[in-house]
Amino acid sequence: MTKRPMRRAEREIVDPDDIEAILKRCPAMRIAIPTDDFPYVVPVNFGFARDGDRFVFYFHSSRFGRKAELLEIDRAQRVGLEFDRVLGVGSTGELTNPCACSCAYESVVGEGIVSRVEGDEKKRGLDALLRAVGFLGDIQYDARIFDATNVYRIDVVSISGKRNATVVSPYSKGDRL
């Protein structure tokens, strides 16, 4: 896949450490799953693993419902990914000029191949998800619930981030966000 240059190159984030830091601050991952008509976009809790520049994401699902049905149509489904955080809304200049309003944010987008996992990898994926949402205890699974849960992995093909922190917040007395 050829990477298209970002229009606002000064906002682009390509360093994997910076991307990882953003991901750790994002509460949800949105997955765009292809359908015959329009993409189905669904927010999910997620965990991830990283090996150098390569990211792998994990999420879970019931064995039933639209998300599970769409992901089972093709065992190597191509999906889009999106993560974001709004840092504040303010102005890039005069606080009374509505045309100078802007949003401070950080986001990550990517594409990947999703597949359902089983066995040890299913447990590793659920463990990563639970740690990402703050679970601190010893992780033990009820076999009946574990067996009734689908776990998917997304092998990331491309990923990049973007940040706009040049907004003056009307609530911060002129401090940059």
In words, what does this structure look like?
- The chain is an alpha+beta fold.
- It has a single domain (9-164), classed as Pnp Oxidase, Chain A.
- Helix content is 21%, strand content 42%.
- It has four helices and eight strands; from the N terminus they run βαββββαββααβ.
- The protein has helices at 16-25, 66-73, 119-132, 143-147; strands at 12-13, 29-33, 40-44, 47-51, 54-62, 77-91, 101-117, 149-164.
- Strands 1, 2, 3, 4, 5, 6, 7 and 8 form an eight-stranded antiparallel sheet that branches.
- The radius of gyration is 19 Å and the shape is globular.
CATH class annotation? Mainly Beta
- The count of domains is 1
Main sheet attributes: strand count, strand direction, barrel closure: 8 strands, antiparallel
Structural class: alpha+beta
Radius of gyration from CA coordinates? 19 Å
Low-confidence stretches: 171-177
Q: Would you give the CATH topology?
A: Pnp Oxidase, Chain A
Give the SSE order as H and E letters. EHEEEEHEEHHE
Number of DSSP helical runs? 4
Taken as a percent bin, the fraction of beta residues is 35-45%
CATH architecture: Roll
